[in-house]
């Protein structure tokens, strides 16, 4: 989203900058420099006239020594430098003139006496005068060159565009930057709200909606927000209805099952040996159905979020140890074992019973799929990252593993994998789904991967309790 914000901002700002720069530069380039040159001529016209007349008179009367006494104080006070030539082209004070002065001298030698000329680019003013004794002289005044800026870009801005034009350009760019920043924020902030609401709905908060700040706008983004809210309300109704239906149906099936078990017990009392096998089958199926209903009720309860009301801080390692002891007792009847290989103190926050069920589901699933005479291994440890610490519980079996394309489906409801104990009829595929939902209630996650050498490793992660 920030990339979209910066893209919009930069494109708007660059567009404003190009337009503004084009206007300022084109205005500056079409504006002739003759006005500046004319101002320079007007400024020094009187100066060159007075100085030329006085220098010619002083040289005829007092010679080079008098002229030197006149030029010396002037050149120390002003940045200009004066050169005076006689009719033969000799500098009367014997000073060496630079090439640009000699070029001006050649041009002034061809003009009549009393003529003044300005060479704006070279910053030179010259006048041809006749002294009291009738001799002709040429006075050439040189001015310091304009300051050359270190960068051609700066020289272009401050010389060709001018200071006023550069200041205008910078002011326009600063104002345009603030305007484009506001405009980009005005466009992208509703999109950020939509993204945040969509993320909350994906995380299970079906009551997330777009706020009035977006809906009060009079544009397409406001309409998009209203359409999004309608979609979210429809999803909320559908999911809530589905959860309620699932919970109600599961709950209502409990009573017929209880009566079925009672009737089954009564039939056993009067039935002969021939019916025992069929009655055992009925009893097993009733138990499986009862277990399935219990899992469905557990899943519906987690979806409703009621388990969030019973949080407390406890040691996940102790839960893992208790589950390992109980599961090992069950696994021995199948010629398998469960061992807690390593455990460290991992204080987490949540409902201990809910998370116990989550761990039991993973361990019992591993018992079903591990090979005979193998051990399901459980490890518990803490890990730290840049944000916060995590408790990590791993359950590793030594079964056939799972095909790579089926790993992502393991934690979805009613997903079952083949393999494991051929005598085990398996479950309904709800155990691992319940595990992931349980961990998700408390900010955790579950993942599975095939282990090197065969088997499956299921990793459960939970954030450590605050302060741990």
How many domain regions? 3
Count of helical regions: 11
Q: Supply the CATH class of the largest domain.
A: Alpha Beta
Count of beta strands: 11
How is the quaternary structure best described?
Answer: single chain
User: Mind telling me the CATH superfamily name of the largest domain?
Assistant: Histidine kinase-like ATPase, C-terminal domain
- What's the N-to-C terminus distance? 34 Å
Kindly report the spatial arrangement of strands forming the biggest sheet.
6-8-9-11-10
Measured as a percent range, the helix fraction is 55-70%
CATH architecture of the largest domain: 2-Layer Sandwich
Let me know the largest β-sheet: 5 strands, mixed
Low-confidence stretches: 153-157, 420-424
Shape: rod-shaped
Protein described:
This protein has 468 residues and is α+β, with helices and mostly antiparallel strands. It folds into three domains: 32-142, Beta-Lactamase; 233-302, Orthogonal Bundle (Helix Hairpins); 305-463, Histidine kinase-like ATPase, C-terminal domain (Heat Shock Protein 90, 2-Layer Sandwich). 56% of the residues lie in helices and 15% in strands. It has eleven helices and eleven strands. The strands form three sheets. A five-stranded mixed sheet has the order 6-8-9-11-10, with helices on one face. Strand 2 and strand 3 form a beta hairpin. Helix 1 (2-30) runs antiparallel to helix 5 (163-202), helix 9 runs parallel beside helix 10 and helix 10 runs antiparallel to helix 11 (431-441). The longest helix is centred in the middle third of the chain and has 51 residues, at 220-270.
